[in-house]
Amino acid sequence: MTMNSTPLSHEETIVTSQQLLERAQILYEFVDLFSQYESTPRNYGWTENLTMNEVHLLAKIDSEPGICSVDLVDVFHRSKGYISRITKKLEAGGYIIRVADKQDAKRQLLFLTPSGKKLCTAHADFDERTLIKTYQYLRRDCTPEEIEAFHKVMQVYINIMNAASRKHRDAKKRRGEKTPAGSV
Questions:
Q1: CATH, domain range 39-137
Q2: Average pLDDT for residues 9-30, to the nearest whole number?
Q3: Over the Cα atoms of the chain, what is R_g?
Q4: Pairwise CA distance, residues 83 & 39, whole Å
Q5: Which part of the chain has CATH 1.10.10.10?
Q6: What mean pLDDT do residues 57-64 have?
Q7: What does pTM read for this prediction?
Q8: On the CB side of 54, how many CA atoms lie within 13 Å of its CA?
Q9: In this structure, how many other beta carbons lie within 10 angstroms of the beta carbon of residue 78?
Q10: What is the tens place of the pLDDT at every residue in 137-172?
């Protein structure tokens, strides 16, 4: 059924299904390419190459000084092990420090070092330049309204995926199964 509750004809259903499958392939390809892009080390105007995932995690620590790894698991929808690997790399690179929480000694709070702060500033500059360039590329083939519609659709996809993730976690909890933080 469409949004106005008018039933689709058999022909519309077939065409719609085929179109949806073709469009889903576009989405899958985008996700694959973006995943490759975000995991490719690059120089953000600093001495060490980091991946987008690593530098965005650093930026989150910058925006929320004292955040802990468990919170990063939830924010980035990643496993504890994944977040642990990145925070260890950032700590070894001298970009972050861990400080024991005074209320809970087991809990480690994360803060940027001066080098981490400089890297975040360099990354913000890099992101601004890159996003402007990307927008200019998009404008070659898309109107501002089409770009805005794309962002709206992506937000709806995010909402759908977050709801499905919560539903999956809740179902596992009801069955008494362990649900790792950040699991989808």
A1: 1.10.10.10
A2: 82
A3: 21
A4: 14
A5: 39-137
A6: 97
A7: 0.78
A8: 23
A9: 20
A10: 999 999 999 999 999 999 999 999 989 988 988 888
